[in-house]
Amino acid sequence: MPKAATRSPSSRQGPGRGDVADPSLSPRGKGRIEWADREMPVLAALRARFAKEKPLAGLKVSACLHVTAETANLARTLQAGGADLVLCASNPLSTQDDVVAALVSEYGIPTYARRGEDRDTYYRHLNVALDHAPQITIDDGCDLVALAHTERKEALRGLFGSLEETTTGVQRLRAMEKAGDLKVPVLAVNDAAVKHLFDNRYGTGQSTIDGILRATGILLAGRSFVVAGYGWCGRGLAARARGMGSHVIVTEVDPVRALEAAMDGFEVAPMAKAAKRGDIFCTVTGNRTVLGSEHFPSLKDGAILCNSGHFDVEIDLKALAAASREVVPGSRANVEEYRLKDGRTIFVLAEGRLVNLAAAEGHPSAVMDMSFAVQALCSERVSKMRGKLAVAVHAIPPEVDAFVSRLKLETMGIEIDRLSAEQERYLGSWREGT
Ligand code: ADE
Predict the structure, then answer these.
(1) pLDDT in tens, 118-144
(2) What is the CB < 6 Å shell around ligand 1?
(3) 295 C-alpha to center of ligand 1: Å?
(4) Domain count, the chain
(5) What is the pTM of this model?
(6) Do 71 and 179 sit in the same domain of this protein?
(7) Residue 83 is part of a domain; what is its CATH number?
(8) Ligand 1 center from residue 167 Cα (angstroms)
(9) Model confidence over 319-360: pLDDT tens digits?
(10) How far is the CA of 390 from the centre of ligand 1 (A)?
(11) pLDDT, tens digit, for every residue of 83-100?
(12) Helix crossing, 26-38 with 69-80: angle to 10°?
C-alpha cells in the first residue's frame, strides 16, 4: 500500500516548482509539446474557449497522469481555464523528463515526475498532489483517489469530483463503489465512446507495436504474436499486429469476446497452448498473472514478453526470475534477459510495465486529442455541478461524445449527412411497418 510516511511539506511550493530530473531538457520538451499540439486541434479549441471563459477559475486541481507531451497540452488547457494545477506521474516509467522540465520552466505548472522514479518517490509525488488540497482530481489508474481514500482521508474533505482516464482505474472505482467505500463523485472518462473506441483501440494498437519495435527492432511479419485479452486495447493490438504480417493468437476468458476474436479471423487458444507457439506475447487484460509459472516452461527460447495493461502485474516476473539463473540488462534499452536455469533465454520489455509508454511515447497526439478534450469538458462539468453530483461512478453524457466527435471530424475535413425531417419523424414513430 502507499506510504504516507514519505510525504513532503510541499504545499507551500509555489507555481513553477516541481521535481524535475533535468531542467536543461526544457527547450526540447517545449518543442515536443508544441509539435503534439498541432495534432490536438479539438483540445486547442477548448483551450481558446477556456482562456476566455475561465470555467475553472481558482479551482485546485491535482492530476496524476502519464507525463507526456499530450498531457502537457491538457495541463495547459486546464491552466488556461483558470485551474490551480499540480501534476504528478501515474506510472514510474512513462514520464518524459523533457516535458516535465518544460511544464515547470515554460508553463509554470508544478510537476512532480521523474522517469524511473522508485516506488517511494512515486508515492511522495502523489502525496504532494494531495498536499495541494485538490477540489478536483484527475487520475489514470486510480492511484490518487485510492490514496485519498486510505492514508490521506483528510484530502477527501475539499474534493468534490474526480475524473478517471483508464479502464483499470474505472474498474477499481466500480469495485470501491460496490464495496460502499467510494466517497466522491467520479466521471468515468474512459467510458466515453470518443475515448475508448479510439484511444484504447487505435492508440494502444499503434503505440504498443511502436514500443515493441523501438525496444527490439524485430521483424513482425511471419511471427506468432500472442495478444492476451480482447477488450478495446486487445482488439486494436491484434488488428495492428496482423497488419504487420504476424500470425495473431488471441487468449481470452470471456466467451463473447473470444467468439468475436474468432469471427474477426484470429486464432483463439488458451494461454497454455499459445505459450508453446508464440514468438511475441503482449498482455492487455487488466488482470494479474496472465503469464505465470505454469506457462514459462512452455515458452520458446528467445520468446519476447511485454505488457500494455495499466499495471505491471500481468506477467509474473517474480516467478520468471525464480526460474532464472540470472537476470541481466539486454543489449538494447528497455530489454532484460531472463536466462533460465534450463538454458533458454526469455526477453522481457520495459520491466513488464506499459511497453507503449515506457519504450515508446504513448499514444499518438491525434488520438489523445479526443481523450483529453473529454477530460477538459468533464472538469468543466464537475465544476458546474459542484455539490450536485451523487457519490457514484458516472457515465459521460452522450452530448460530450457528440460534441467531441463533430469537432474532430471538422478538423479532419470530413463532412457527414444529417437526418432529414422525414427521417427524424420515421425514427420517432412506430406505426410504419411491413
Ligand atoms: N496514455 C497512453 N498514451 C498516452 C499519452 N500519449 N499521453 C498521456 N497518456 C497516455
Answers:
(1) 999 999 999 999 999 999 999 999 999
(2) 65-66, 68, 70-71, 203, 357, 362-363, 368
(3) 30
(4) 2
(5) 0.95
(6) yes
(7) 3.40.50.1480
(8) 13
(9) 999 999 999 999 999 999 999 999 999 999 999 999 999 999
(10) 29
(11) 999 999 999 999 999 999
(12) 80
